[in-house]
């Protein structure tokens, strides 16, 4: 579900015609729909309402301060993975917002910062980290609340680069040894082991892995309690998938159905860390065609967004729907669910379309947003919408080729406002200029 729709062959974001945004803010431009964002947060809150969950929006999906502020205003806490993300949450969130801190490489300085700034829980990923947190906490004269993150050793369930619960990945404590680790810190003066954490991977399109994870989690919580730990939290992480190519994602209620029984059984408070599910479908990346060209039997659309703006296609081979903002007569509008939802290629057999590569200006053959994608004929100046770009789009953007990062704009009904200005050349060189001899 999202609030991007075609009206009279023009793409609208909520009630704003998208060309108006290109005109005002330029391209490439990330365009967010506030209603879409809040709809998805609400969907998670409603599906899990019975458990009164602590929802900690995952800042790594999109850390824009205005979006984080919105999340906080609507009852969300934050999941962070670095001091920088922690500081974003502090800056944007309401006082007292719950912040959980995951990540395999927290430094002592980050641990200290978190403890001094009211971290709700550390999600602990190794024995050394556990001891480091204990030591820093003791130095500060406090007790750190920690959840032990388990790698539940489940079968593969998503892209190999983002599957975090198969054997051998760097995340979490081994399920075989986590009980011994928990035992080793019973009574530790700097540590309160109050939870169990797992994050299975991202994106996950089925509920089954959560059922399997919960099953293992319930047994672990029982074991930790038997050791004397006062376990109050079950943190099931994030990972809920979204519709990229078609109507393929599960509603939040499908995940709730398999997670809530574990919450009931353990009596724990549930924590969730959704990122993509909330913000993923809430944005398009808007770009403008610079040139088209045919070479070596291939047709290229060269537009002004590139791998530095959205790296997911290059990095993971991810599919993002791309469609003209003004589809010509005879061209269908928005081919997201194109007839058969089980068709692996929902773009097949589109009238008046031919296969094209959508590429950017960056100097790499790997710089593309789509390959062999049926698209209608395009001309210089046409606007393109790259859909489902809200999660891991801007947060993974870079300045490669000294390209300034895109601006971001937030749409609410008929209004829109800038939530990140376009970078300038001065921004690009700011950290180097003073060092110039
Ligand atoms: N919690 C933890 C501990 C995580 O590592 C992640 C994501 C999340 C929550 C949020 O997951 P989500 O609900 O957004 O699926 N760059 C990749 C995704 C990397 C995900 C990393 N961890 C992509 O573009 O697909």
From TrEMBL:
Substrate binds at residues 276, 312, 316, 364, 392. Pyridoxal 5'-phosphate binds at residues 239, 273-276, 392. The active site is at 363 (proton donor). Pfam families: Orn_Arg_deC_N (PF02784), Orn_DAP_Arg_deC (PF00278). One of its GO terms (biological process) is lysine biosynthetic process via diaminopimelate. GO terms for molecular function: diaminopimelate decarboxylase activity; pyridoxal phosphate binding. Pathway: Amino-acid biosynthesis; L-lysine biosynthesis via DAP pathway; L-lysine from DL-2,6-diaminopimelate: step 1/1. The modification N6-(pyridoxal phosphate)lysine is found at residue 60. Its cofactor is pyridoxal 5'-phosphate. InterPro entries: Ala_racemase/Decarboxylase_C, DAP_deCOOHase_LysA, De-COase2_C, De-COase2_N, Orn/DAP/Arg_de-COase, PLP-binding_barrel. Its EC number is 4.1.1.20. Coiled coil: none annotated. The keyword Amino-acid biosynthesis applies. Belongs to the Orn/Lys/Arg decarboxylase class-II family. LysA subfamily. Homodimer. HAMAP family: LysA. This is Diaminopimelate decarboxylase. It comes from Frigoriglobus tundricola. The lineage of its organism: Bacteria, Pseudomonadati, Planctomycetota, Planctomycetia, Gemmatales. The gene is lysA.
